Amino acid sequence: MLRHYTAAEVEAGLDYIRLIDALAESFRRGGEAMPVRQSYDVGTSDKPGHLLTMPAWERGKALGVKLVTVFPANASRGLGAVSSLYTLFDGTTGQPRAMIDGEALTNRRTVAASALASRYLSRPNSKTLLVIGTGRIAACLPAAHRAARPIERVLAWGRNPQRAQAFADTLSRQGFATEAVTDLPAATAAADIVSCATTSVEPIVLGRHLKPGTHLDLVGAFTPKMRESDDEAVCRSRVFVDTYGGALAEAGDLLQPIAAGRWDAARICGDLHELTSGARPGRLEESEITLFKSVGAASEDLAAASLLVGGWVSGTRQTAS
User: Fold this and answer.
1) What is the CATH number of domain 122-296?
2) Half-sphere exposure (CA, 13 Å, Cβ side) for 94?
3) What is the mean pLDDT of the chain?
């Protein structure tokens, strides 16, 4: 029977430890088919709009597709620019099983992928997390990273100091020891993990501010024209990606230093499949700087949706013992 999952049910049904483990198993197997996402212009001359489709499937088990719309003019209507819906189908019969709030699913699996990478790339004793950005994905990052490392302190930075303070206050109410900061270089130097979730087209994290041993988690930039780090940050780091295909097609943080002749794609040290399968090592030394660049993968949506639907029976959430 087809079931609809609200954003609240997604958040309740996908606790981070189980979700991180599910993503790890999905990347380790590497068995999902995942075509390149398609983008279509569906807007008008005065009001642009785009439709994106992101399918993935594991033969005989499950298949799903995320539909995403991007309508930038929605701000004038008091609406968000991005909307999405995920549909999960049975992999044996093709019958629809679930329709899931796409934004909640995306936010949850995105930050869980960052936490999965952190398991391999950050220092095990990482306690201070700097979150750059004040949006919805940024708000999910502390809980996800705390599921992977013993985070005790969160520093919050945003371009608008008032929004950063409000963001920090919200995290404090959630139980995080959070401080809004205005001195970004000092906060970067103080952090064990720097997690950046913005839509910036100019570098925010500068390599000269990263201390030895830092793990840099770049979540936000997802087109070749966007970037959150400068060339020096990339050149100083051992670089890992979620998938080679996605990163080398969309990650401006990597494509721009490649185009400038400062860096080369051959220097990518591994992706999440290679990390989780043991084919490539993660962090090698206490003092090295590691960088994880994600742009998102449809296989993550499929793994998260399958975990969510499998965890509910007759409307009752099933939790791990």
Assistant:
1) 3.40.50.720
2) 0
3) 93
Dihedrals phi, psi of 279, to nearest 5 degrees: -70, -30
CATH 3.90.1170.50 fits 3-105+299-312, yes or no: no
User: β-strands 153-157, 128-132: how paired?
Assistant: parallel
Domain boundaries, the chain: 3-105+299-312, 122-296
Give the per-residue pLDDT at 312: 52
Q: What is the biggest distance separating any 2 CA atoms in the chain, rounded to whole angstroms?
A: 56
- Confidence check: pLDDT of 171 > 80: yes
CA 273-230-68 angle, to 5 degrees, is 55
Percent of the chain with pLDDT over 90: 85
Q: What is the C-alpha to C-alpha distance for residues 216 and 257, in angstroms, rounded to an integer? A: 17
Residue 288 burial by CB count (10 A; 0-12/13-18/19+): exposed, middle or buried?
middle
Cβ-based neighbours of 255, under 8 Å, separated by 6 or more: 224, 248
H or E element at residue 155: strand 153-157
The string of pLDDT tens digits covering residues 82-141 is 899 999 999 999 999 999 999 999 999 999 999 999 999 999 999 999 999 998 899 999
Only one residue has tokens 């003092």, namely 287
The answer to whether the CB of 302 falls within 8 A of the CB of 62 is yes
